[in-house]
Specification:
This protein has seven helices and eleven strands. By secondary structure, it is α+β, with helices and mostly antiparallel strands. It has two domains: 64 residues, Winged helix-like DNA-binding domain superfamily/Winged helix DNA-binding domain (Arc Repressor Mutant, subunit A); 158 residues, Chorismate lyase-like (Chorismate lyase), CATH 3.40.1410. The strands form three sheets. The protein has a six-stranded antiparallel beta sheet with strand order 5-6-7-10-9-8. The chain has a three-stranded antiparallel beta sheet with strand order 1-3-2. It has a two-stranded parallel sheet with strand order 4-11. α1 packs across α3. The radius of gyration is 21 Å and the shape is elongated. It holds the Pfam family UTRA.
C-alpha cells in the first residue's frame, strides 16, 4: 500500500505527464486544495520533483509551479538496461509489455545474431516509462535456442538481469548505430507524441562474455525527452585509436 506521500507524488506526476512543458500546474495554495493535502506535505513532494527536474518554481505574481519535462540522459559508454539508467537519474522506471513471440528471423536479424533461416528468435516488444511517461519503444530479439523458457520470466524489468541470473550470461560489449527518424502514427500513439515527431533510433547488437551476439534490438527514444552522452579519451596526434571508439556517420 503506497504511503500518502507516494500517492500524492503519483497524482502530481500524472498531471505533469498529461500537461505540456512550460505549462503551469498551479500555485502552492491551489495545488494543496486540488490534492486535498497540507502545504507542508505538498512542499516535500514538490521539492523532490523539483530536484528530479520534473517541475520548477517561479516567484512573483505570475509565479507558481511549472512543468519542466527534463531530458533523460542515455550514456553511450555503458551497456546497461533502461531501468538502470533511469533509476540513476532519479526516475521511477516502468514497463508495458506489448507483445512476445517466437518467430523466424529476417535477414538483418540472421546477420546480426549469426543465425540461419531455419533458426528461431524470441521477440519482445515493450514501452519503457519514466515516472509513468513513455520514453522509448523497444523491440528486442534473442536466439531462442540459447534462452529456453525466457518468455515465462517476468519481463517488466531488466532482461539483462534475467540473462545474467538465470542463464549465466554477462553482457560484455554492444555495437550501436544511431539515426534520427520520424514517428509513424503507430509509434506516435505508443510514445505519446505527434506523428512525424523526432525520434532517436538505436539499433544495437549485444555480445556476451564469449563474444557471441546475444541480442539484436531496435530502440526508439523520444527526441524531446532524450539526450545522448559519451565519454572519449584523447590520445594525441598520430596515435592509433583503440577498438572501443564512438563514431558518427552521415546517412546518404
Amino acid at each position: 500500500m503506497p504511503t500518502q506521500s507516494e500517492q500524492l507524488r503519483r497524482h502530481i506526476v500524472a498531471d505533469i505527464n498529461a500537461g505540456e512543458p512550460g505549462g503551469k500546474l498551479g500555485s502552492e495554495r491551489e495545488l494543496a486544495e486540488r490534492y486535498r493535502t497540507s502545504r507542508s506535505s505538498l512542499r516535500q513532494v514538490l521539492a523532490a520533483l523539483e530536484e528530479s527536474g520534473l517541475v520548477h518554481r517561479v516567484i512573483g505574481r505570475a509565479g507558481g509551479i511549472f512543468i519542466s519535462h527534463p531530458q533523460v540522459q542515455r550514456s553511450l559508454s555503458d551497456v546497461v538496461g533502461v531501468p538502470s539508467f533511469l533509476a540513476s537519474q532519479g526516475y521511477a522506471a516502468g514497463t508495458r509489455v506489448l507483445s512476445t513471440k517466437i518467430t523466424g528471423p529476417d535477414r538483418t536479424t540472421q546477420q546480426a545474431l549469426h543465425l540461419t533461416a531455419d533458426d528461431f528468435v524470441i521477440e519482445i516488444q515493450r514501452v519503457r516509462l519514466a515516472d509513468g511517461s513513455p520514453i522509448s519503444l523497444e523491440t528486442a530479439e534473442f536466439p531462442a535456442e540459447a534462452f529456453p523458457g525466457l518468455l515465462e520470466k517476468q519481463l517488466g524489468g531488466s532482461i539483462y538481469q534475467i540473462l545474467e541470473t538465470e542463464y549465466g550470461l554477462v553482457t560484455s560489449r554492444a555495437e550501436e548505430r544511431i539515426e534520427a527518424v520520424n514517428a509513424t502514427p503507430d509509434e506516435a500513439a505508443l510514445l505519446g507524441v505527434k506523428p512525424q515527431a523526432a525520434l532517436l533510433l538505436i539499433n544495437r547488437i549485444t555480445y556476451d562474455q564469449n563474444g557471441t551476439p546475444c541480442e539484436f534490438s531496435r530502440d526508439l527514444f523520444r527526441g524531446d525527452r532524450t539526450r545522448l552522452a559519451v565519454t572519449v579519451q584523447g590520445r594525441g596526434i598520430g596515435v592509433q585509436p583503440a577498438v572501443d571508439t564512438a563514431s558518427v556517420a552521415l546517412q546518404s
